[in-house]
TrEMBL record:
InterPro entries xrefs: SNase_OB-fold_sf (IPR035437)
Species of the source: Sphingomonas olei
Protein name: Nuclease
Source organism superkingdom: Bacteria
């Protein structure tokens, strides 16, 4: 963790972009969920080449987003920053019940473990 990262962020979730973020907080923070990767819109597999470009199946991305919304929307998360990515804070977030958001997304099949970052951010095990 670099010195310019803020302390823990209390995030009242007002919007979820997709399964791994950014999660938009009422205080303006944008958080990318640490250690996991979820399908992205417009690039979700399977994409098929067509005459006018690629056609992607966004159903997996939408399903992942809906899981993330059910877990977080309108709730208060406590997020510990571990890095920055673009204009977002990458953070390990705890749900109101104390469970890891990353582990909860994995358990529900909404994301996969991104091993490189899981190790780098010392995510630990999931219960």
């Amino acid at each position: 963790m670099t010195a310019d990262l803020p302390p823990a962020i209390i995030c009242q979730v007002v919007k979820v972009h997709d399964g791994d973020g950014p999660i938009h907080c009422a205080n303006g923070a944008k958080i990318r969920v640490a250690g996991v990767q979820a399908p992205d819109f417009a690039s979700a597999e399977p994409c098929r080449k067509r005459r006018r470009g690629y056609v992607c199946d966004d159903r997996k991305a939408l399903a992942s987003k809906r899981v993330a919304e059910r877990l977080t929307l309108g709730k208060r998360l406590v997020c510990q920053p571990v890095d920055r990515s673009y204009q977002r804070v990458v953070a390990r977030c705890a749900l109101p019940n104390g469970n890891s958001l990353s582990c909860s997304l994995l358990a529900r099949g909404a994301a996969t473990k991104w091993q490189t970052y899981w190790t780098r951010y010392r995510m630990g095990g999931c219960a």
